[in-house]
């Protein structure tokens, strides 16, 4: 099977088992952003990480494929595509709570950075927030298509990635860089 089909040369692409839409369609933009997020997490996983964190990120990457598949079809029930849901969100919350227990309390804004792995996770967090904003637009554009679960998952995922970046730095002995705001006189 060839990777290229030439069917997208006109600026359209096919939804999974659905109609062809413009490559600038909101669904395509959203799952393309989810794919970008997944790739950045792959970069983070390419760096040395504790095994529990690497396993968590691998699970998140699998979840993001589920999210992408859901966004790529208008017929998830017919195609039997599993949706992310409350169990997935609860897992993220459990991971957040576990990491936060080992972290010093957050009393200031912090600058993204630290180790290369943590910086990659911070970057993933910002792309995750963009994906979330796009998913909110999908909910507003297609209120009956069940995208709210994706919004909730992406919202919690971004929270998890923020805490995870801090945890990676903390485990590596790298302190958070506190943002010192400047006042304008």
Short description:
The protein is 60% helix and 5% strand. The chain has helices at 26-45, 51-71, 76-79, 86-101, 116-141, 148-171, and strands spanning 12-14, 20-22, 110-111, 177-178.
Largest sheet: 2 strands, antiparallel
CATH topology: Hypothetical Protein Ta1238, Chain: A
Query: CATH superfamily name?
Result: Cobalamin adenosyltransferase-like
Side-by-side strand order of the widest sheet: 1-2
- Radius of gyration, in angstroms, nearest whole number: 18 Å
- Tell me which oligomeric state these chains represent: single chain
Helical content, roughly?
55-70%
| Poorly predicted regions | none
| Architecture per CATH nomenclature, i.e. the level-2 architecture | Up-down Bundle
Strand content: 5-15%
SSE class = mainly alpha
EC number: 2.5.1.17
Family: Belongs to the Cob(I)alamin adenosyltransferase family.
Main location: cytoplasm
Pfam family, one: Cob_adeno_trans
